[in-house]
UniProtKB/TrEMBL annotation, chain A:
InterPro entries: CoA_trans_fam_I (IPR004165), NagB/RpiA_transferase-like (IPR037171). It comes from Paenibacillus profundus. It comes from the Bacteria. The keyword Transferase applies. Belongs to the 3-oxoacid CoA-transferase subunit B family. GO terms for molecular function: transferase activity. Gene3D superfamilies: 3.30.30.40, Glutaconate Coenzyme A-transferase. This is CoA transferase subunit A. Keywords: Transferase. The keyword Nucleotidyltransferase does not apply.
UniProtKB/TrEMBL annotation, chain B:
Belongs to the 3-oxoacid CoA-transferase subunit B family. Transmembrane segments: none annotated. Pfam families: CoA_trans (PF01144). InterPro entries: CoA_trans_fam_I, NagB/RpiA_transferase-like. This is CoA-transferase. SMART domains: CoA_trans (SM00882).
Length: 278, 242
């Protein structure tokens, strides 16, 4: 009867090769890492990633050869763990197109998608080489005034992959702590895959419907994955796993990357094997 | 001054940045921004108790920054805050002219205030793909004051001409380990030299002609400032970029 609750493998089938994929969270926080690793295991190709500021998610997908382009304002692990070297090298080798945004222009492009508009004005983007270098920015005449206005083309994700703390089996979800761009992504994308720390009873969500950030009718897949953001942090549940991140940023070969992803496989898929809630 | 001997470059930079902030201003920092984060906290504890601290996770005026060890975008900044005002709304605020100060980074800067945080070499076939300018391209043109900090000061950072203009103009101050630059009439001018450096050192490490009206030195941190820093930043996140 309930067709939304599914395994990580089943949900990953909703992400086709060549899909535009919006990734939830921000830098090392609440990134949907379990699904990212599943996309690597399933050998997805030519993905077009979208995020304001990414880190381990974008870096790992680039390391595994899953990526065609990255639309983002910032890709790095911040100060402690340094640069996203796999992303960087993949762009420098010409394998991945780096579509640099100003963070806000990703938000505006998603707002355009969420409201069904073909583009969105970006009031502050007035100068610099990003406008000329990227065809998704255009400077147009303001129909209501004299100053020209820069617009950004809508980004309509085929799928948004988001990790949340609580969700019921229908897909009503609550994001604890910072929501980052997750709520906007859920409105902009054609499909939404949720991985969740835990499945809560529908009755519990009914007690606080005003707290639900993502309503069920926007959601196609719900996958219980405890520690589904690890080694990134997940507010209320766990901090970032420094040891794993330190190990990963030193990895260079395809074998190392494969082993890294395989080491998580059993844990990543355990939420739907345990049989408890679903 | 006996405090002078104890002050490190990171302390001098933090105090210089904190003093640039005025009471009541709305001030934003983004990712990888431990230094401005600590400076904002210092200003709030001293001369700017009504400063409004804004950040990516959306925590308005977090009461503590002690948990922001590896990230300045984590949930901890919201958990101890007064209200929720997330990134997209901070951007909107700046677009409509309501953001007083934005802190931004960059990798290359030139004398005309051009900022590069994007690439070394060609944009489409870069020799080096940098992390990206994050919000710079929309915040530097719209915030009333844009402050840039950089913990490197050498001829590869301060160059004759940047490889790529991620954004330009409206840079108010640039704070480095050697000095503070200010934008005047479209050009970077030497504002003050840190007491730990010298004019010669600044000139040697800057790839464009260093211009100045007269020679001033950045004030040393006071005993009060250093004492508050110990209290608000006991784990020395302010030095994490060094």
């Amino acid at each position: 009867m309930n067709r939304k609750l599914m395994s990580l493998q089943e949900a990953s089938a909703l992400v086709r090769d060549g899909a535009t994929v919006a990734l939830g969270g921000n830098v090392l926080h609440r990134a949907p890492m379990a699904m990212v690793r599943e996309l690597v295991r399933q050998k997805k190709r030519r993905l077009r990633l979208v995020k304001t500021a990414g880190a381990h998610d974008i870096d790992l997908l680039c390391a595994a050869g899953c990526v065609q382009s990255v639309d983002a304002g910032f890709v790095s692990y911040e100060t402690e763990f340094g640069l996203a070297m796999h992303y960087r090298k993949a762009v420098e080798r010409g394998e991945v197109q780096g579509h640099e945004h100003a963070c806000y222009t990703v938000i505006c492009a998603l707002r355009a998608a969420a409201s069904g508009a073909p583009f969105m004005p970006v009031a502050g983007l007035k100068t610099g080489d990003l406008i000329e270098a990227n065809d998704y920015f255009q400077v147009i005449a303001n129909p209501f005034g004299d100053e020209p206005v820069t617009v950004v083309r809508a980004i309509v994700p085929d799928v948004a992959v988001l990790h949340v703390q609580e969700c019921d089996e229908d897909g009503n979800a609550i994001v604890a702590g910072p929501k980052f761009e997750d709520v906007l992504m859920s409105r902009a994308a054609k499909k939404v895959i949720l991985t969740t720390e835990k499945i809560v009873p529908k009755s519990k969500m009914r007690m606080r419907p005003d707290n639900v950030d993502i309503p069920h009718f926007l959601v196609q897949a719900v996958v219980p994955v405890p520690r589904g953001a690890a080694p990134c942090s997940c507010e209320k549940s766990y901090e970032a796993d420094f040891k794993m991140l330190e190990q990963f940023v030193k990895m260079k070969t395809a074998d190392e990357i494969e082993q890294y992803v395989q080491a998580y496989e059993s844990k990543d898929r355990s939420g739907t094997r345990a049989g408890g809630n679903w | 001054m006996n405090t002078a001997n104890q002050a490190r470059v990171s302390d001098i930079m933090i105090c210089a940045i904190a003093r640039m902030l005025q009471d009541g201003e709305t001030v934003f920092h983004g990712v990888s921004s431990q230094m401005p984060m600590v400076a904002m906290m210092l200003a709030r504890h001293l001369h700017a108790p009504n400063l409004v601290h804004l950040n990516i996770p959306g925590g308005v005026n977090p009461s503590s920054i002690k948990k922001a060890s590896y990230s300045s975008a984590g949930a901890d900044l919201l958990a101890s805050a007064e209200a929720y005002f997330p990134l997209e709304q901070v951007f909107d605020l700046s677009m409509r002219g309501g953001l007083d100060v934005a802190f931004l980074g960059g990798v290359q800067f030139d004398a005309r205030g051009n900022v590069n945080a994007s690439v070394i070499g060609d944009y489409h076939k870069p020799k080096v793909r940098l992390p990206g300018g994050a919000g710079s391209a929309v915040l530097i043109p719209t915030a009333k004051k844009a402050i840039i900090w950089r913990t490197k000061h050498d001829r590869r950072t301060f160059v004759e001409k940047v490889d790529f203009v991620t954004t330009r103009g409206n840079v108010w101050r640039i704070v480095t380990p050697l000095c503070v630059f200010a934008m005047k009439d479209g050009a970077l001018m030497l504002e003050s030299i840190h007491p730990t450096s010298s004019l010669e050192e600044v000139v040697q490490n800057t790839g464009f002609e260093v211009k100045y009206d007269d020679i001033r030195f950045t004030p040393m941190p006071t005993a009060r400032e250093l004492s508050v820093l110990k209290q608000i930043d006991p784990f020395d996140y302010r030095s994490s970029e060094f």
